[in-house]
Amino acid sequence: xxxxxxxxxxxxxxxxxxxxxxxxxxxxxxxxxxxxxxxxxxxxxxxxxxxxxxxxxxxxxxxxxxxxxxxxxxxxxxxxxxxxxxxxxxxxxxxxxxxxxxxxxxxxxxxxxxxxxxxxxxxxxxxxxxxxxxxxxxxxxxx
Length: 143
Prior knowledge:
Elements: H1 2-19, E1 46-48, E2 54-56, H2 65-70, H3 89-95, H4 101-110, H5 129-139
Antiparallel strand pairs: 1-2
Helix pairs in contact: 4-5
C-alpha cells in the first residue's frame, strides 16, 4: 500500500511540474516589472523629428517575471517564503546573485536535480531564455 501511495505522489508531482500532457497555451502578455529595478537596456537608435533634432528611440519594456511565474506551473512546487517540493524563492535569492541569472535561466529551461535535493525540477523547454531570465530576476528580488 505504501508503494502505491508513493507512486501516486510521484506521478502527481510530475504532472504538477509540467511533465503531464501538454496543453496548447496562448502567448503570455506581460507588462514592465516594477520589482526588478534593473536598468532598461540602452538604445543606440534615434528618431528624427524633422527639425534636425535627434531623440532616443523608446526601449522595449522589460518582461514581468512575477506575471510569468503566475502564468506558469512554478507555484505548484515553489512559494516565496516556504519550502514546498522545491526551495522557497527567498532561499534561491539568498544563495544566488545577479551573475548567476543566465545559469539559473538555463536550469529552469533544461530542468535538473541535485542542488536542492534529490527531487528533480521538470524542464520548461517552451520558455524563452528572455522569459526565464525575467523570472529569475524577479525571484532574486524576494527576500
